[in-house]
Amino acid sequence: MKKGVLYMILSGREIIKHLGKEIHIEPFLPERINPNSYNLSLFNELLVYENRQLDMATPNSTRKIIIPEEGYVLQPNILYLGRTNEYTKTDGYIPMLEGRSSVGRLGVFIHVTAGFGDVGFAGFWTLEIFCVQPIRIYPNVEICQIYYHDIDGEYDGYTSGKYQHNEGIQPSMLWKDFQHKK
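Structure for dCTP deaminase, dUMP-forming, as requested:
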């Protein structure tokens, strides 16, 4: 860090000031803005891996679960992949994702390991959902929050990558890294 330079998280008001410019959230609902974040909601689909033993070097098969309006009960020790309803795009800020504290206090963990986005990311966020006890979840619930960090130094922007410009829930594509090593 440069001497005298302070890196900041944008306030809710600053997020609104940058909407339609460096920050895009579609759809955007003003009532979801927080003091320093914006609540994102859960799409009505989940993916689960079909096998109990996964392999990093190969694609792992998944199956789709539709979350009905009356809810779906998540089970412990299963990783569920979800998706936000909202499409986000960011330029000039680092998007970061966290679970909402109200959701975490029910023993549901959202985006446990990969909440750090890249400058220039554009797409829907795939959520890593894990619970400690059975819990009923619902489609469209405000499940996580996005916040924005400023960045220092030059960056090229993020225009390509395994998860850039996605449409649906993205299972791990780590296996592609192994292809590049061959």
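Residues 9-180 form a domain with the Deoxyuridine 5'-Triphosphate Nucleotidohydrolase; Chain A fold (CATH 2.70.40.10).
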